[in-house]
Amino acid sequence: MSQSIRRGLTLASAVLAMAVASATPGHARDAETAPRKPNIVIFLADDLSYADVPNGGDANVRTPALQRLTSEGMTFDRAFVASPACAPSRAALLTGMMPARNGAEANHDRANAAIRKLPSYLQEQGYQVVAFGKVAHYQHTGTYGFDYYANDTFHDHKGIPAAAEWLKERKDKRPLALFVGSNWPHVPWPRTTEGYDPAAMKLPPKTVDTPITRDARARFYAAVTRMDQDLASTMDAVDAVLGKDTFVLYSTDHGTQWPFGKWNLYDTGTRVPMVVRWNGHVKAGTRTDAMVSWVDVLPTLVQLAGGKAPEGIDGISFSSLFGVGTGAAGRKEIFTTHNNDGRVNVYPMRSIRTDRWKYIENLHPDWTYTTHIDLKVMRTDSGAYFPSWRDAAEKDPAAKAIVDSYYTRPAEELYDLQADPDEQVNLAGDRRYAKELAGLRTRLAAWRKAQGDTGKVPVQPRFERGPMEGEGD
């Protein structure tokens, strides 16, 4: 080999060695600092039914940010909460356990301090876990073990911009699990309709059509649009800082504060919007009819974070929908419960829902069903319009039927969801469906026994209809 060729090979080797030496440390640093696990963002709205957003068929409301997220991700058409009240619903999400097991059965109850919570599972996988706004119930967030939390008081709207600002200034190199909770569309709704025309909208089933009801409904939609604006600003910050490969889950804690929504076990109380966006794992613009419960979110997130789904909880992971783990995603039956909210919503009920059937057991049909909606006549929202329903019921048989079905519930309710998705025709007394009724009754009883669910409510019931000015919160 000539001397010139040898010099050329030596020079080439030196250049290659220098390239490797300069590149390898950089790659090593990138491997050390780049998250090996997906960043996770959970956005929670407050008091919003699946039926009251465009995903669920409501054409009245404007939610461009939610629709954009829907176009980029997977819509869950059959997602349900564990209970249609704030504290029990959110406690179920953060423990993976149903209310009778986690201890938060009534609204304002706290989950048992001894139960392991979702932040702990994610922290074990190396995550920084942070919450802004209403994630747990008001002023309960500190009991769940977040690394940092802020703005968890009633209608504290500073939490949304605070989350975006915190995210932009964040220096921590750990993978992030960020929980953001909007207070909208929880009452009080905006004082004006903000561009919604009360006369032009289509009212939902089981609604008494009065002028003040239409005004309230328009202001509710204004509140939903404010929630959507919170979602937009949050997603803008997430996409700018964390990127679109972030795992994003949007959902709401239970149904709308409307007479057959919140505090009810009808689908309008327990069926909620849910959308997941995760580039590379979820095909944009898809939908799934897999039935999932909020208790399933905990094991799903743990698996996405690289851990094993915890044993001994009620939640079942649906991560296989995103290509993580194995097994069928979704449930064959959904259980829901409601007890009370202080002395205002004292009406314990339990439910089992399958693909076709809904069975509701009202544990005390001799009690009168009452909520904030009819008791609080001085409230700016439901308390303002519900008296017009009672007035209409004195003259209109259809309005009377709606109002009576609000206050008085039978011991058992059975609905064929295929034929009657709005749950208006109770088939529990129809002999043709005796087999379905008996089977669901038995399965619900077995589930309650396994849960240790006694159905006891430690407050006095009501036997009279509202209003009762000044009572309750």
From TrEMBL:
Keywords: Signal
Organism domain of life: Bacteria
Bias type Basic and acidic residues, positions: 462-473
Residue ranges annotated for the Sulfatase N-terminal domain, each copy included: 38-306
Residue ranges, annotated region (Disordered): 450-473
Tagged with keyword S-adenosyl-L-methionine: no
Any Pfam family: Sulfatase
InterPro entries hit by this protein: Alkaline_phosphatase_core_sf (IPR017850), GAG_Ulvan_Degrading_Sulfatases (IPR052701), Sulfatase_N (IPR000917)
Signal sequence extent: 1-28
Keyword Signal listed: yes
Coiled-coil intervals: none
Classification via PANTHER family: SULFATASE (PTHR43751), SULFATASE ATSG-RELATED (PTHR43751:SF1)
Name this polypeptide is given: Arylsulfatase A family protein
